[in-house]
Amino acid sequence: MQHTNNKPKNKDVRADGKVFDGHTWRKAGINHHCNEEGLIFYKREFRTLKGYLQQGGNLSKIVFGNIKTPQAITTLTKVLYDKENSGDVYIITNKAWKGWVKIGRAIDAEDRCKGYQTSSPFRDYKLEYKQYFKDRTKAEKTAHTLCSDIAEDKNGEWFKLPVQKAKKLIQTINEKQYEK
Questions:
Q1: Single pTM value for the model
Q2: How many Cα atoms occupy the beta-carbon half-sphere of 33 within 13 Å?
Q3: Does residue 18 contact residue 26 with C-beta atoms inside 8 Å?
Q4: Is the model more confident about 56 or about 132?
Q5: Into how many domains does the chain fold?
């Protein structure tokens, strides 16, 4: 400390290497601790990961050492997944619904298809096509709009449409339209 009174000032450093952050003494470089509920202490209060990032937090500064509950891990995983924009727009089919295709988005289409297999005793979902996009959410929305225009029928993300037509529509999506 470089001042004479006993009250620490912001960014003062103690002999043990801890830095005063204006509120408390913390280890240098490890200021953003995540508790067991998945909340991060930042700017004098606990925040959700989403709130932490909105307030200017940085993922590389978070210490996750105390996360132990499955619910906390699930919450953090969902926020991190939602933060990632890039990934695949994919087409999945199942022979039980002949003529229908599911058009969806995922960071990893193969992994998503494996997830569908758990809901089928025959493990008969098939990844027909995938295409990478910088913004998979916008690309998926565009794919849904394009497929809705020509599909015989629609139910959520499922379209009564030949695989090849769906594939050609996805291939027409131009990412430059999303750039600003």
A1: 0.64
A2: 9
A3: yes
A4: 132
A5: 2
